[in-house]
Specification:
The protein has about 550 residues and is an alpha/beta fold. Among the domains are: about 140 residues, Rossmann fold (3-Layer(aba) Sandwich); about 210 residues, Aldolase class I (TIM Barrel). The chain contains 24 helices and 14 strands. Helix 8 packs parallel to helix 9 and helix 17 packs antiparallel against helix 18.
Length: about 550
């Protein structure tokens, strides 16, 4: 028996690009994708012996619809990717190849999924997958296989890294914990992974890191490690034990730089921050979500405000770690002032890499059920449930104003001048190791002269600079900034070099706009914006 695991794209249409287009920088640097689907790799590793396994990533290779000899095709998809996954499943089914689907969306809406596939695996699959495969071989597999509990983390196998070519992917990834006891209205993690934190044994994490492809100092590759946990500091005792085990791995060169998602509470414990730094952590991804305490309380996001933002962020920066700040716009308590407030917060606290999202009521969340019951959902076109589109009616602004403000945030935060100003201010406030002199020189002599041009030459300088810095083994803030800069600053960068894709992007985002509404939303006095392609033009062509 042979199983073909397929990691699908978000959307099969190459002209349909997102506003925040990370794939562009991957292409520029010679990678095909940021990350491989860790869930697929893990389930593939749990496949029973005697079953042949093949993995295909649609970003890397074409899907072998006509040539595969697989007996079963396995797909996994989150909500924003599931529409294309259904299309992929349909093509295989028309050839008579059965398809099984797992992942977040199928777990929350299995009946919907069964309209497009033959089988659905609900919940975490490491324990139920071997049982499903064996029953499939006997012709006894049920349409829906459910995990009724949450498997212990010590039974999760090392992902099947040997089945993929790591050169195509920018980051490695691991998972150390699952579950969350909090009840944020916009989050479905407790429904998917349980309301109790579960932990992978420290020795298993170390084993998994040592099993990563190209493990070592990583100085010869643009390769770093991303910890995919929803909150890496969910239990401090475990986190400290794990970090203590990672310190010698980092010192020996077995573990390079890495990043993890945490809450700002990480800064309350300075011993913990010291361990992060000693273990080689270069970036902490902080879910600020909102700069308003009222909004956070309304969303049931529990945060301890005993530590001021400047002090908390300063403690992280002082240890040579940068901050990626996640912010969401569109909450019911947000008004038009929220965009300016977030931008001022980012600048005031020197957050090098702000990441903005539009509030999206994902299936399985309290928010989705509330909006559905109140008639506030616009549609269930799941491809638009990607935190980059407005799919509901906001309370204190129009859909157009929310979309416009979101675009404005990225435009303003990732102008070259704003990006480099934050970077240089960060260096002044928090002195880094001597090697950053190379980075400072790169900014002064290479980037600054081209910051207003946005030309093809600037594009080449960006790519060449990151390659050179990484080849020197530099802890490159510049490298990270260029990645975020290029992918996020869509209008002034990607829009110039991929004008057709930009045109398509703006047209897609304009589905709710009339020309009159668009012109009002794009009031230059209100937003102080400059556009390469006015949204009004794209709307008028529909």
């Amino acid at each position: 028996m042979k199983i073909l695991f397929v990691a699908t794209k978000k959307n099969g249409n190459p002209a349909d690009r997102e506003l925040y287009e990370m794939d562009f920088m991957n292409e520029l640097l010679g990678f095909k994708r940021s990350l491989f689907d860790l869930g697929l790799l893990t389930v593939a590793a749990a496949t029973p012996e005697g079953v042949e396994v093949e993995l295909v990533d649609e970003y890397v290779d074409p899907i072998p619809y006509e040539t595969t000899d697989a007996d079963l095709v396995a797909l996994s998809a989150k909500t924003s990717c599931v529409s294309h996954a259904y299309e992929v499943a349909g093509r295989f089914k028309r050839r008579g190849v059965p398809v099984v689907l797992g992942g977040i969306h199928a777990s929350l809406r299995p009946e919907e999924a069964l309209e497009h596939v033959d089988y659905v695996v609900v919940g975490e699959a490491e324990r139920t997958w071997p049982e499903f495969v064996n029953r499939f071989r006997r012709g006894e597999a049920p349409q829906i296989t459910r995990e009724t509990d949450f498997p212990p983390m010590d039974m999760i196998p090392v992902p099947a890294w040997d089945r993929i070519d790591p050169k195509h992917f920018l980051f490695h990834q691991i998972q150390t914990t699952r579950g969350c006891p909090y009840t944020c209205r916009f989050c479905s993690v407790p429904d998917i992974s349980g309301s109790t934190f579960r932990f992978k044994p420290v020795e298993n994490v170390v084993k998994e890191i040592r099993a990563l492809p190209s493990a070592g100092p990583l100085k010869d590759r643009l390769k770093a490690l991303y910890v995919v946990d929803d909150n890496f500091i969910s239990r401090l005792k475990y986190t400290k034990e794990l970090l203590e085990a990672l310190v010698p791995l980092h010192r020996s060169g077995e573990l390079g730089e890495w990043s993890a998602e945490t809450t700002l509470n990480v800064a309350k414990d300075e011993e913990l921050l010291d361990l992060f730094a000693a273990a080689g952590c270069s970036t902490l991804i902080i879910g600020f979500e909102s700069v308003s305490e009222v909004t956070l309380l309304d969303m049931k996001k529990k945060v301890n405000f005993s530590l001021s933002y400047p002090e908390a962020i300063g403690r992280i920066h002082a240890r040579g770690m940068s901050v990626v700040g996640n912010f969401i716009v569109g909450f019911d308590t947000d008004t038009l002032s929220v965009f300016r407030e977030i931008l001022e917060f980012v600048d005031r606290h020197t957050i090098l890499y702000p990441f903005f999202s539009i509030l999206t009521p994902m299936p399985g969340t309290q928010l989705y059920e509330e909006f559905r019951a109140n008639g506030r959902l616009d549609h269930t076109d799941w491809a638009r449930y990607d935190t980059r589109h407005v799919v509901f009616g906001p309370k204190h602004m129009t859909r157009e104003q929310l979309m416009d403000g979101y675009i404005w945030l990225y435009e303003q935060a990732y102008t070259t001048t704003a990006s480099l100003d934050r970077l240089e201010r960060y260096w002044r406030l928090h002195r880094r190791r001597a090697s950053t002199a190379v980075e400072r020189g790169f900014v002064k002599w290479k980037l600054r002269p081209f910051e207003k041009s946005g030309t093809e030459r600037f594009k080449r300088v960006l790519a060449d600079g990151w390659r050179r810095l990484s080849a020197k083994g530099v802890r490159s803030d510049v490298g990270q900034l260029l990645y975020y800069y290029d992918s996020a600053h869509f209008v002034d960068f990607l829009g110039q070099f991929k004008s057709k894709a930009f045109d398509e992007n703006v047209r897609i985002f304009s589905t709710h706009r009339s020309v009159e509404e668009t012109e009002k939303a794009l009031d230059k006095k209100q937003w102080d914006r400059k556009r390469k392609l006015p949204i009004a033009e794209a709307t008028a062509r529909e």
